Amino acid sequence: xxxxxxNTLTRKKEEFKPIKKKHVSLYxxxxxxxxxxxxxxxxxxxFEDVLxxxxxxxxxxxxxxxxxxxxxHLTSDADTGEDKxxxxxKKESKSAWxxxxxxxxxxxxxxxxxxxxPPNIWCKATVHIKEQINWIKKLxxxxxxxxxxxxxxxxxxxxxxxxxxxxxxxxxxxxxKRIAVGEKKNPADFALWKFSPKNEKRQMEWKSxxxxxxxxxxxxxxxxxxxxYLGKQFDIHCGGIDHIPxxxxxxxxxxxxxxxxxWVNYWLHGEFLLLEEKMSKxxxxxxxxxxxxxxxxxxxxxxxxxxxxxYRKQLxxxxxxxxxxxxxRSRIKEKIKEMNKSKSNxxxxxxxxxxxxxxxxxxxxxxxxxxxxxxxxxDNTLSKxxxxxxxxxxxxxxxxxxxxx
Length: 405
Prior knowledge:
Elements: E1 4-7, E2 12-15, E3 23-28, H1 39-57, E4 61-68, H2 84-92, H3 96-113, E5 121-124, H4 129-141, E6 145-148, E7 151-154, E8 190-195, E9 214-216, H5 218-230, E10 234-240, H6 244-259, E11 264-270, E12 273-274, H7 289-294, H8 299-307, E13 315-316, H9 319-337, H10 346-360, H11 366-378, H12 384-395
């Protein structure tokens, strides 16, 4: 049965066809490890996990790469402000390296508790400085860069298709709308390499061909690492919807400027989780997985809560909704205990399997997949063995427990 995915690049649902038969190359934008991941961040990784499990269950081999941004992500999209790692180090009176290690471990603990499969490859930006410098040098040689007093910038006017992912032209928007021009040639131009401030000693800085010391821009990190591990063209790139207009737009520009061909075939983006507004670390209105556990909930209650909504729809978090998710998980267990010993119904089992695969293969439709699960639990023609067989089958795609039922 074919898999259909909504491709942000084309704004339509498409049949998934990998570059290499039965092999999938997948890159997911990982965390900037200056603080704890909030549950809005984690919603994205839950949807990516469902994607990965769906690919597995359709007999694909998946090479999954996720970056760790431990340098270069500034507090402003304008390529200004402090590096988030350096700022966190000052606040906590620790080294930037210790900050990165602590919050990387915290993130890995969170995804384990959410029953999210880890990537095949974790790649840290600080470990791939050479690759990033080499990519910038290629851009420089090809005529896509220029130098200012504070760094090396990508000239977006030189890249004909700039903004195609975000449909910037059709929306009559500028990618650099929020960006002060300063020495930039164009508002949307972005930093590839930043020079270390002359009046300040950074903890994370490296020698480069352009200045004595400096550090990479946020966007170049993903291009350099993704191409290193997945090649100059790969199948799927995932991330949060907030990455579309700037981060992923800039990734495409700086990569395709060199490869001169389509870089990624399918772009998938998860929508926001809302409280009264979008969750933001800078605003301080965040809830972490630890917050949920402190209130007596399981991380898997949160996972179930997320599965009740399609990944491309905004989801509003409330404690009442999380309570409902916990109760639903409890009812599933009770339903299994109450199952009678009726005879097996292999025909119904086959039909439910096909129904579940059909909906989950339809752009990861987890709400419909859960509806199939509840139909199974309410079907009195099924034996307990039938139900357990189906639940194990369903759980491989969007698990609700740490272990099998």
